[in-house]
Fold this sequence. Notes:
Chain A has 666 residues and is of the alpha+beta class. Chain A is 52% helix and 25% strand. A 5-stranded antiparallel β-sheet of chain A has the order 2-1-5-4-3, sandwiched between helices. A 5-stranded antiparallel β-sheet of chain A has the order 7-6-10-9-8, sandwiched between helices. In chain A, a hairpin with a 5-residue loop joins strand 4 and strand 5. The N and C termini of chain B lie close together (10 Å).
Amino acid sequence: MPVTAEDAATAPQTTGLEQGELKRLRAENTQLREALARARAEVDTFYPTEGLLYEFLEATPHFVYAKDLDGRYIMANPAHLALFDAEIGEVLGKDDRQRFGAEAAALLMANDRAVVEAGTALQFEETHLVDGVECHYLSTKFPLHRADGSIYAVCGISTDITGQKQIEQALRESEARFRLAIDAAPALVYASDLETDQILSLYGLKKLLAEEPAQVQTRQAWVERVHPADLAGCLAELEAATAAGENFELEYRLRHGDGHYIDVRENTTVIQDEAGRPLRHVGVVLDISARKQAERELRALNEVLEARVRERTQALAASRDQFARLFHASPVAGGITTLAGGRFLDVNERFAAIAGYEREEIVGHTVADLGLWLDTDERERMVDGLLAQGGLDNHELRFRTRSGEERTALASVELIEMDGQPCILGMYVDITDRIQAEQQIQALAQALTLAEQRERRRLSAVLHNDLQQLLFSLEMQLYLLRRDLEANLPPEQASTLGALSEIERMMEQALAVTRTLSLELNPPVLRSEGLDAALAWLGTHMEERHRLQVDLEVADGIKVTSEERRILLVQFARELLFNVVRHAGTARAQVSVTGENGMLTLTVADEGRGFDMPTILKQELREEETKGLGLFSIRQRLGLFGGKLQIESEPGTGTRVTIQMPLVSS
Amino acid sequence: MDLQRPHRIFIVEDHPVMRKTYLMLFDQVADLEVCGVAADGESALQQIPELAPELVVVDISLPGMSGLELVTALRTAHPDLHLVVVTGHDESRYAAASYRAGADGFVRKGDTESILRALRQTLAPD
């Protein structure tokens, strides 16, 4: 515990022994004072004076202060006072709680106590709020001792390190951001010393190569990881750039920690000294494997595409060559015109031949120039149909040759592209001769029908007018003979009457046959009356002769003025009704006639057993060979008159045969 | 009917063999006799007024004027004349047409017994 002067003055009186002791002590004290005086003299010789110390305290920018053991300020230098904008009177005798508040004071006072406890100087970083701003100080605090060595105060010298702390903080934040960036990017940042070959700093190695920095401490260690195939090129570029002091960029493959190679791109800055000598490399290495892979895939894809394009181009060229050869060699007339304008780009020889031109006289000209189509709107209609349907088959069109002859062609056209422009490829078959032949065939067919009918009539007339009359006459004479024999025949010749009866019976049969034949060959109703009357007769005839009940329905207003068509229709109806009798297994049939748009429709239907179409058609064909009748025959003859036949039947559902025939010839 | 006097019959038949056969037939039949024959309608129309037959046998198929037209004409000109149509056609529709035209009888050829019966019934319906 420290002893003060007051303590000595108030001490009690002493005894003799004590006086002797006191004397010794006083002597000793005197010696000590003298020693002290000598020491002070020595100190004054070697240490600054108190005035100098005062000047130091006044002038130093550091904040110097002292607090007693209760924490009360016993000294503060002008810099300290200026910092807190305080007068010395406002500071002395107050502790940190009073000056800075309990919270801020707690740490300061704890540091002071630590110094007292340690009995030696300690260094702290302390914080003060100055004008609302947090300021940082580096404080060296040390105890002040009395002469007896006891501590009576703690002295502090604080230096404002706020700026430094801010720089450090900014640096830390910057580094943290940098690390974040490095960590986030597949990148490595390094700095290497070219002289020592050491890698000075390395960030992102683990992420890039899955290795520890300790494994890559030298530039050589890095080089060893470069793909052998890339190494020579990289080193050459690197050395050249380094020597020239130029920044460089390299792309190469780098071995990953697990052994496989990754693609990297290195951007490096060469740091030089003042003399221009290269000192360091500072670089960024990026993992570009994904990009390289994408590039490789793209390249591969491009190669595949290019190969395909080459193949397609070759195939197209081959196809075009083949097309051109086929087009020009085709026996069918062909022409290619532009969709817009109808200009001929090409025609084959056959086309030129049927149009009556030289090929060169057509190519380059339009359809309109040449006046090819008889109907000038024909091409427009064809193009409309082509665009709507994508192609037209067997489109009939009339054209005019160079000599003015009008002909008919069957056109099949489709859209194609020639040298990037839409065109029409048309193939044309000149059917003029065929049409004429068909017309001749049709005329012949009609003439044949009439001739056949005439022949039927002639035969019928012969039967009726001659043969039948003779038979009637014979029958009358037999009647007279029987009368005569019955009256005059002797009994022994009675058998003659039996023979006569046999002759009469045969005569009846002969008459019946000739009657039926005559009627069927030429039903009188066919010539004299309309189709409905003829069909009505046919219905009655079928019922009387073949026990087939025919329900007839003829729409009003049906008129078939052409006798040959009327005869044909009745013949067809009769043939179809005979089919019902022969095949259907029913005693009833329906015949209906309707007419619409110049086309007559005759339907013969039954609800009989029906048939399997392929089977019956084969059967019909066989019958065709023997009888010359049947469906096949009807279809053939109908076709010659521009008509058609449709058969609908299934086993068990009956049969429906529909005949359609134009009412006038085409 | 007067049994002593045969009925006078006029035959209209275009076929010569049939005409001849008719003559043979009626020559053998006591109650009927042929007073005249014609091969067509026009000839018949000319002869009949003069010959004044009781009955005319008309074949339906005749050249020129048809049998039915002749029946119509005769019926108009001679309302009391008996008219019988004969035909080789095997069709009932001719019968109806014949009666519509004015015939009193209709019979098919080929059955002489029926022809004779038809003529006698026409001449003496009772």
